[in-house]
Amino acid sequence: MSKEAVYVGSIDQGTTSTRFIIYDRDSRTVGSHQVEFNQIYPEAGWVEHDPMEILESVRVCMAKALDKATADGHNIDSGLKAIGLTNQRETTLIWSKSTGSPLYNAIVWMDARTSGVCRKLEKELSGGRTHFSEVCGLPISTYFSAVKLLWLMENVDAVKEAIKSEDALFGTIDTWLIWNLTGGLNGGVHVTDVSNASRTMLMNLKTLEWDQPTLETLGICPKILPKIVSNSEVIGDIATGWPITGIPISGCLGDQHAAMLGQACRKGEAKSTYGTGAFILLNTGEEITMSEHGLLSTVAFKLGPEAQTNYALEGSIAIAGAAVQWLRDSLGIIKSASEIETLASEVESTGGIYFVPAFNGLFAPWWRDDARGVCIGMTRFTNKAHIARAVLESMCFQVKDVLDSMHKDAGEQGEVKNEKGEFLLRVDGGATVNNLLMQIQADVMGSPVVRPADTETTALGAAYAAGLAVGVWTEEEIFASEEKTKTATTFRPKIGEELRKKKLESWCKAVSRTFDLADLSL
Fold this sequence. Notes:
The protein contains 18 helices and 23 strands. The protein is α+β, with helices and mostly antiparallel strands. The protein is globular and about 65 Å long.
């Protein structure tokens, strides 16, 4: 494609906010807009989103980003070639195909209401918690869409009736958005992509299709499920009624898979995204690597209907940036998230404080839904700066736990190292602007952390997938990571091995104190 004005838009629908970013052919942002939306907490451990509010947030972001880019002299109307979509994964909803209305709020990925469903399945199924792991790569956990769908089927009358009358459509957020963007009641396309489907517990990792035996075991009707497509292909055009119309949606990936593509992670390379949670993925190439150390086997990306599938090992951490929000919104220790770096920098260490944010249990590599948050080691010497620093350290320790498991699963041959023999962790996401957090991460790991100039790689990855499908970029251009590293910032460890080892031992002691606390009396 020639060097004329060419643009690709990217919808980035996250857990706490939605954004729309318009990129030019050189992957530079020419217009963007972001809005937060409401988090709904009906009960302790429950988290929901209003699907209609999410739709409206996409509409607003599209319109505002378009206005900003146009005001800066960019002719988006004639140059926009494609739209990519990336989204919070696992979040589950069911809607009526005859009215287009949701039958219940979306149940968010971190919601823990399904622990009873999980315990029941573990007891009834011969393989226990790992009964489906060989097929889908995932353990039975509150995290994944299938158990959320089972809860809706058991507890919401409108859902039961709609499934019975064949009026129900199931989807994760990508499916809901695409169906509405491509016409909704008037011919909306009911699809999901391989990366989002790989997080439902219902897709066979080898065939990339819904697994019939799993559906039968769980009693899920296949008619409610969307068609599975690759991450880079034309899905459908945006319908009238949206700020942008007639443009193809040609890329779709779950947020962590999009970040892998945005970071140009080849086989043996890993990235960690710091958002509401933290998510570490290692590209394992065209082979599925089954974890023996508490990680998930998942799809990395499939860049076209006929393209080879790249797989990944993933460690998912439920609470990362959300702990900073908790300090701000629930405790009032800081007024804005950006203040935590300044506050935590007031002290040289945590003063022996260890904070484990197991608010709704612990994900990888522990998988303990009976865990609850703890802050240990407090004395009269402890102040809010120590607590703030302990919150930052908690993110880094959790990432280190996952990386240790990755090293064990992948082995020396499964990881790419630089000329100095160092394993580099690529990082992205909103929290990575915090230099102290990045330095602590390098100290805790004992190896370098590389932060790109543009840390919002999730939206960029979705744009790449969309642009690739319509010829804006080639795979070679997307994976030309040498250019990206020229403008990156590298953080190297500054603490000694002995101190690192002591701190990790103390962290493990703190984690062990979180177990079996879910039934503490109110």
